[in-house]
Amino acid sequence: MSTETLTIRIDSETKQKLDRLAQQTSRTKSFLAAEAITEFVNMQSWQIGQVLIGIADCDSGRVVPHEQVEQWMKRWGKKKELPPPR
């Protein structure tokens, strides 16, 4: 995989923490920053994708009425727990 250079600005406290973490893990600051950005981008992409799926479900009428969810939540973790509404 090819890589590219990205220049960012971070606050001093975060930079100091990154310096310590790099030293403690024997990794470079660039490696740690790239890993953090990759994880953030992956998580945000997944989350936005799930929101868009939810919106599409709502738009097409694939929803569970609030009352059914409320009944389910009231029994959640109790002896006679209800199955999740579908």
Give me a quick take on this structure:
With 86 residues, the chain is mainly alpha-helical. The protein has three helices and no strands.
Unreliable sequence segments = none
How confident overall, as mean pLDDT? Answer: 96
Number of strands: 0
**Largest sheet report:** none
Describe the structure.
By secondary structure, this protein is mainly alpha-helical. It has one domain (12-75). Helix content is 64%, strand content 0%. It contains three helices and no strands. The chain has helices spanning 12-25, 29-59, 66-75. The mean pLDDT is 96.
List the defining traits of the structure above:
single chain, 86 residues, mainly alpha, 0% strand
List the helices and strands and how they pair.
Blueprint (H helix, E strand, L loop, with lengths): L11 H14 L3 H31 L6 H10 L11
